[in-house]
Write a structure and sequence with these properties.
single chain, about 290 residues, alpha/beta, 6-stranded parallel β-sheet, two-stranded parallel sheet, 11 helices, 8 strands, globular
């Protein structure tokens, strides 16, 4: 669904105007109500994480969730995700099922209708902190802007290239393209949770130990893998297609064929297993 030209156009034209409108409304609201800034000593107890579209990005949020749960074991963490990413959130296993709020993503229409329903439900919850982990789409910013929360946090472009996503984030971090995405996520999470005001980046160091993504799913035994695949190992698992969303990342099919041929020459006892989703089947078959 995220490949839809309709959704991209809505995000570009309607999203930009809507982000500006929400920013204006929230600015006026703060002036009228004279809402004080959140105390830097206030630690949030109810947090919503927004990561809508990318499975890999959802995995990279694991260190951030671990940080929040380790810092406060009683913190209540919710997540707003799309249906396509639900399996990976379930597999990660860090959040209770009733805390994962799912937006349908079969089509632009189902997405928008489902989003309205989910947002109305979430507006009944007063979050202490909402963290938006999206980088390039305005639609997540719109969701964050209409929900109730004491504080909001997200990536901000400052003087770099990027989308205009409103001015209603109390905590803003610049995205560092030279740093791993899990480190960017953890920087934003810590800055938001600790109410950091030294911008544009989180200023403390982030040790490698903190950004390691540790698997929570038990490893399958060799016998279990052999039963699933139907052939004996050892195996090379190859996922040759990231899909049409970021097709520019794909290596040429013949390059995969060349690499696979060389691997099998060097390791003749191995089997090659192509993995992916149903839409990757044609690419995998062509390479084989």
């Amino acid at each position: 669904m995220q490949d839809s030209r309709t959704l991209r156009n809505v995000d570009r034209y309607v999203g930009k105007a809507a982000c500006g409108l929400i920013s204006l409304v929230r600015s006026i609201g703060r002036l009228v109500t004279k809402t004080p800034a959140s105390s830097p000593n206030f630690l949030p107890k109810k947090i919503l994480l927004v990561e809508l579209f990318e499975m890999g990005a959802s995995v990279m949020l694991s260190p951030s969730i671990s940080y929040l749960q380790k810092t406060d074991p009683n913190v209540e963490i919710h997540a707003l995700v799309s249906r396509t990413c639900l399996p990976i959130w379930t597999a990660i296993g860090k959040l209770d099922a009733d805390k994962i709020h799912v937006i349908e993503s079969d089509s632009p229409v189902s997405f928008l209708l489902s989003a309205m329903k989910v947002l109305l439900s979430l507006r009944k919850i007063r979050f202490d902190l909402i963290i938006d982990y999206e980088l390039f789409m305005r639609i997540s910013a719109l969701f964050v802007g209409v929900l109730k929360s004491r504080r909001r946090a997200g990536f901000y472009r400052y003087n770099l290239e990027g989308l205009e996503r409103g001015e209603f984030y109390e905590t803003r971090c610049a995205f560092n393209q030279n740093s791993h995405i899990s480190r960017n996520y953890l920087s934003l999470t810590k800055a938001a949770y600790e109410s950091r005001t030294a911008l544009p980046n989180y200023k403390d160091s982030l040790p490698l130990e903190e950004i390691l993504v540790r698997p929570t799913i038990p490893r399958a035994t060799q016998a279990e893998v052999q039963h699933i695949l139907g052939v004996a190992g050892p195996y090379f698992l190859i996922c040759p297609d990231v899909g049409s969303t970021l097709a520019v990342r794909n290596y040429p099919r013949m390059a995969f064929a060349t690499v696979i041929t060389e691997l099998l020459r060097r390791y003749p006892l191995h089997r090659v297993v192509m993995i992916g989703t149903e839409e990757n089947a044609e690419t995998s078959q062509a390479i084989l």
